[in-house]
Amino acid sequence: MNVQENSEMQDLDKIMNELRGRIPFDRVEPEHLRWLAARFSEGSFSAGTTVLTPGQIPDKFYFIRSGGIQLEAMGAVAEEKKILAEVGLGYKTPLEVASAFVALRP
């Protein structure tokens, strides 16, 4: 194994360990988790960047490793009601994100 392959294996192991700590990935068989982790690519967004808009079909699975995102109401909404939810490392699954969104809707 060369240095690059060793580094890639360490990155893969790191992603797998992060996934194992989150529902529902904690119940996924190791070979399936490795397959999923091998398809991850890291990206980052500057503050204020729109990641998804209403009606947009996502082409990626977003996994928050640091920082966070805000779910914002669209259209004519009072400023104090604009932020529906703030999602960061405390949220573990897309279902929790969706639950936060539904619970905080105006």
Can you offer a commentary on this structure?
The protein has 106 residues and is of the alpha+beta class. It folds into two domains: 1-40; 44-106, no CATH class. It is 34% helix and 10% strand. The protein has three helices and two strands. The protein has helices at 3-20, 30-37, 94-103, and strands at residues 68-72, 83-88. The chain has a two-stranded antiparallel sheet. Helix 1 (3-20) crosses helix 2 (30-37). The longest helix is centred in the N-terminal third of the chain and has 18 residues, at 3-20. It is elongated.
Amount of helix? 25-40%
Class of secondary structure makeup: alpha+beta
The H-and-E topology, N to C, reads as: HHEEH
State the end-to-end distance: 55 Å
Number of strands: 2
Instruction: Tell me the domain tally.
Output: 2
Strand order of the largest sheet: 1-2
Low-confidence stretches: 99-106
Shape: elongated
Total helical elements: 3
Instruction: State the major sheet.
Output: 2 strands, antiparallel
Average pLDDT number = 76
- Cα-atom radius of gyration: 17 Å
Q: Please state roughly what percent of the residues sit in beta strands, choosing from under 5%, 5-15%, 15-25%, 25-35%, 35-45% or over 45%.
A: 5-15%
What topology emerges from the helices and strands here?
Layout: H1 3-20, H2 30-37, E1 68-72, E2 83-88, H3 94-103
Antiparallel strand pairs: 1-2
Helix pairs in contact: 1-2
